[in-house]
Amino acid sequence: MEKLVIEGGVPLQGTIQVSGSKNAALPILFSSILLDNPVTFHNVPRLRDIHTTNKMLQVLGCPAAFTDDSGHSILVEPGRLEPEAPYELVKTMRASVLVLGPLLARLGQAKVALPGGCAIGARPVEQHTKALEKMGAELELESGYVVGRCKKLRGADITFDFPTVGGTEHLIMAAVLAEGRTTLRSCAREPEVVDLANFLNACGAKISGQGTDVITIDGVTGLRGSEYSVMPDRIEAGTFLAAAAITGGECEIEGCPIEELTAVMAKMGEMGVTLEPHENGVAVRRNGRLRGADMMTRPYPGFPTDMQAQLMALMTLAEGSSTVEETIFENRFMHVPELMRMGADIKLSGSRAVIRGVRKLTGAPVMASDLRASASLVIAGLAAKGETHVQRIYHLDRGYEHIEHKLERAGARIRRMKDTE
Ligand code: EPU
What we know:
By secondary structure, the chain is α/β, with parallel strands linked by helices. The chain has two domains: 203 residues, Alpha-beta prism (UDP-n-acetylglucosamine1-carboxyvinyl-transferase, Chain); 204 residues, UDP-n-acetylglucosamine1-carboxyvinyl-transferase, Chain, CATH 3.65.10.10. It is built from 14 helices and 24 strands. The longest helix is centred in the middle third of the chain and has 13 residues. Uridine-diphosphate-2(N-acetylglucosaminyl) butyric acid (EPU) binds next to helix 1, helix 5, helix 6 and helix 12.
């Protein structure tokens, strides 16, 4: 196993480039199951989750691979589809469950392993399965697999119990080739949902309302694509804004999607971070001490749960106290005890954390527990006095492309080492 060793205290300077969005790329890649012809995707981040997606597509009969050894384009060539998504792959990446709908749409049958919970919560998928059943799928659970059959998926009027990102994406994919009109209500409005709908529309789908809470899909008989460029990763961009801000540095975050980060930038502004949007991204700097703030995670356009841990790292050093309320996942505070090992003053009570700003953090060995918790520890490490060893960084590698290279180029003293070193 590998770890990141960070020697904190260097203000970041220079330009950091944002990669393509992991959470947009995953459903978009899976949606190529719906296509009749090969398609090339650009701006795909080179991440572990993307390699897992390629493997899954391969197993399902849609060979997918990066077109070269270091670039960001993937060619997917839909072929003879296979209906089974094995547990070995689904267990390493729960977003794989999104192939159920597309397989039912194309084959009228599917056998997809049911993902288990993960570190941040139980994460059931009953909103997905109930909605697919409304579209005419017969689903049964057999030995840990959802086994589905249908003659042809039919358009339906579906109201989610609450906005679910994966559920909304899944049902859009199921509905594009269905018979008739599907109306999805109480949808997730996240930019990644919009990116998926835009890709499918570019292939001939008839989706409208993406980005609002009611999405309408008129089924079409076939989809043909050619090329598509995935949107930039708003969470990676936000993570770099936080990294620059905590070190008191001055950076350009190039390719930073500004509109999609409105809530994050507003909160950082409240905390005393100066953010200047310009044509190619955002300039970020901080002069005085950070100020405490109160924040609650909400579905988009509210403050994203995927930035909660990173913002909390900033709050640990802010003047006064801050509060964080996590409303999306039931167990997304695993960074808290680790930040406390670095000297942070945080009190946890259920879904609420109260953070009293301290003057300094000190480097320590800490354990990454999930993707965004890991990012929070890296951010804290960049500001801490002394060395921080962030262990179990395979979590980080699922969602950040070469984070240590990007930070190093901005002056951070950070290196990847074997856990045993
Ligand atoms: N939920 C249910 N039942 C369902 C579906 C969701 O109870 O059928 C619950 C979940 O357990 C969770 C809440 O509803 O408590 C929201 O879940 P949602 O379906 O919106 O999340 P997701 O699609 O599983 C995506 C991202 C997450 C991100 C969330 C929220 C991908 C691959 N994952 O997950 O990203 O936190 O939306 O914005 O797009 C990350 O990148 O670190 C990450 C976890």
